[in-house]
């Protein structure tokens, strides 16, 4: 197999559909979606949308993850959120017909369905249930943005912010050793680099490196490539005050 | 004189006259004094608010601190995200001066939305604008953070 996941070209037969924010649509809308989308697989590091670029269309993320980041006038990048399968990328630009507000880069090998801007606008106009799904995703994205604003404005220490991030990722573990292991271990897949983690929590890469080193030294986490194990969840929880 | 059918606000401008008429039946026009809290963070809004005149300030409270996202003027629709999501508000909204408002009970607004799902197109336009503002705030904020500029070091 050329890719590390099966390619799903037919939205009507997609078995993940019901669990996805956008794709769980009535049959009529799915048939239309199938006719207007182009499926592709992108390697890790592909820029799907570029901040400032005119909106060409939207991408529906089928498999894989993508980071959504923006850059200040000083050239500093901040990660706004990580997109999960089922999300539509490039939405605000497509809806308001303005340049992309953020850069979207794949964090791993990713399957995405591209829908051109005119086709997406017509799809939205012709199928009210599509609007409902888009509204649901936008309310979620707004909530993420406000959470990020609150987090950046808080006087929380960097270890606290990193602990919070790790605990958030631990909600979707690769593996959980179960309560029989004392203390229980949670394995997570981390596709972000230290620099990207820094962009997420608003600090320097050096600080992230120092904090992670400290967590490792204390035996709270173990890092082996992209697989991280949280070996003392309680200790991380104790760091988080909000 | 403010009309509850006014098509110039950011929501009504994308709605059909029929839907605007239906919403007008629920709407009430009211005036609030400067300093009035229109939306409270952590509280589920009971009313959708359309700002007819005056200015409001949108802030995000965080641990005793207040981060100002910006101000909004006539035509702005307030509390839409929380009402559509059925959640508590994420922001505080305060009148900066005497404001005229059109208010619609949240539940009744949602009933009209359910009966007229084509309204979602107008809803997503408003939400998209709100998200752009929040992301823009974050972009500005990034400039003050101790982040590296432009470097692409890959280190796990």
Give an overview of the whole structure.
- Chain A has 242 residues and is of the alpha+beta class.
- Chain A has helices at residues 27-36, 91-96, 117-126, 128-153, 158-169, 194-201, 205-217, 233-239, and strands spanning 37-42, 47-49, 57-63, 66-71, 77-83, 88-89, 103-106, 110-116, 175-176, 186-189, 221-224, 227-230.
- Chain A has two domains: 11-153, Jelly Rolls (Sandwich); 155-241, Winged helix-like DNA-binding domain superfamily/Winged helix DNA-binding domain (Arc Repressor Mutant, subunit A, Orthogonal Bundle).
- In chain A, the strands form three sheets. In chain A, strands 1-8-3-6 form a four-stranded antiparallel β-sheet. A four-stranded antiparallel β-sheet of chain A has the order 2-7-4-5.
- Chain B has 156 residues and is of the alpha+beta class.
- Helices cover 30% and strands 28% of the residues of chain B.
- Chain B contains four helices and eight strands, in the order H-E-E-E-E-E-E-H-E-E-H-H.
- Chain B has helices at residues 17-24, 80-85, 106-115, 120-142; strands at residues 28-32, 37-39, 47-53, 56-62, 65-72, 77-78, 92-95, 99-105.
- Chain B has a four-stranded antiparallel β-sheet with strand order 1-8-3-6.
- Chain B is globular, with a radius of gyration of 18 Å.
- The relative contact order of chain B is 0.21.
- Chains A and B meet through strand 5, helix 2, helix 4, helix 6 and helix 7 of A and strand 4, strand 5, helix 2 and helix 4 of B.
What's the structural blueprint in terms of helices and strands?
The complex is a heterodimer of chains A (242) and B (156).
Chain A: H1 27-36, E1 37-42, E2 47-49, E3 57-63, E4 66-71, E5 77-83, E6 88-89, H2 91-96, E7 103-106, E8 110-116, H3 117-126, H4 128-153, H5 158-169, E9 175-176, E10 186-189, H6 194-201, H7 205-217, E11 221-224, E12 227-230, H8 233-239
Antiparallel strand pairs in A: 1-8, 2-7, 3-6, 3-8, 4-5, 4-7, 9-10, 10-12, 11-12
Helix pairs in contact in A: 3-4, 5-8, 6-7
Chain B: H1 17-24, E1 28-32, E2 37-39, E3 47-53, E4 56-62, E5 65-72, E6 77-78, H2 80-85, E7 92-95, E8 99-105, H3 106-115, H4 120-142
Antiparallel strand pairs in B: 1-8, 2-7, 3-6, 3-8, 4-5, 4-7
